[in-house]
Amino acid sequence: MSYAPLPHRLAPPRTDLPGRLAGCPAPAKINLFLHVVGRRADGYHLLQTAFRLLDWGDTLDFTRREDGIVRRVSDVPGVPEADDLVVRAARLLQQATGSRLGADIALHKVLPMGGGIGGGSSDAATTLIALNRLWNTGLSRAELQALGLQLGADVPVFIFGRDAFAEGVGEALQPLALPPACYVIVFPRVGVPTAEIFRAPELTRNTTPIKIADFVTSTTRNDLQPVACDRFPEVGRVIDWLAQFAPARMTGSGACVFAELASEPDAERIAGSCPAPWQAWKVQSLPRHPLYEWLQ
User: Fold this and answer.
1) Which listed residue (123, 154, 163, 223) is catalytic?
2) 29: annotated active-site residue
């Protein structure tokens, strides 16, 4: 069994010390569906998807520096500091605003990397939101979303801060009103490289677009799932196992798989029965990003 119960839900950050923001949440997301509806001339794929935020994620601490230096002061195995999206996000905000301030950034990683649940993108979004406040750079939500898009297509939805129907490359967002839900998330302990899935010649790229009003009742799917299951069979095995209990689907480009459950006790029981070496969590939906009120 490899069940990782959540110690608590994402809590508000601590802002009691001058020049420091501690415990800033970076929530996970799932894609309730993901359709590839076309491809732009520059090679980027056109998507339709529904993002759902989860009350589960990483946390980050930020300490303001007066010398303009941006440092990651925590170790993230396999991710060099210069490549880390949180460091890139901080430096991008400096460049965009001309801020002469810097920051020490500690990232407390909980979300599995390569899982399709937006961990790195959410970390980057939280960095932009928190440093916009800590440095008093004054960018609006829309301005930060545009900045975040330079870091990755999933970054804007975390700055948007609500469940959303997304189009374009994932940046054209409309709010979705969804009822609260409980999910089981299973990680097969394999990382699925997003770029490899999108490059696959067998990927479906011409799914017929749907309307936002139709997505709940339409027959939807994740167009990336067959490719990921073919190249990473463990993902398919997780889907088959979880589908015994409720309809199961891969999120994003993988590797995590999710299912919505009718009750928390059901989710607890199923997550607790997850076979090793997979890892499972019982999670809740999140109505709004914990830092939502920090932006206009």
Assistant:
1) 154
2) yes
| Catalytic entry in 29, 55, 109, 282 | 29
**Domain residue ranges in the chain:** 20-294
Q: Which CATH class is domain 20-294?
A: alpha beta
Told to judge if 16 belongs to the known catalytic residues of this protein, a careful annotator would answer no
Burial track 269-285 (b if 16+ CB lie within 10 A, e otherwise): ebbeebeeebbbbbbbb
C-alpha to C-alpha distance for 74 and 91, rounded to whole angstroms = 17
Q: Please, are residues 60 and 124 in contact by the beta-carbon 8 Å criterion? A: no
Digitized pLDDT (tens) for each residue of the chain, 296 residues in all:
454 554 447 888 988 789 999 999 999 999 999 999 999 888 889 999 999 999 999 999 999 999 999 999 999 999 999 999 999 999 999 999 999 999 999 999 999 998 999 999 999 999 999 999 999 999 999 999 999 999 999 999 999 999 999 999 888 999 999 999 999 999 999 989 989 999 999 998 999 999 988 887 678 999 999 999 999 999 999 999 999 999 999 999 989 999 999 999 999 999 999 999 999 999 999 999 999 999 98
* Tokens (6 digits) for 21: 């923001």
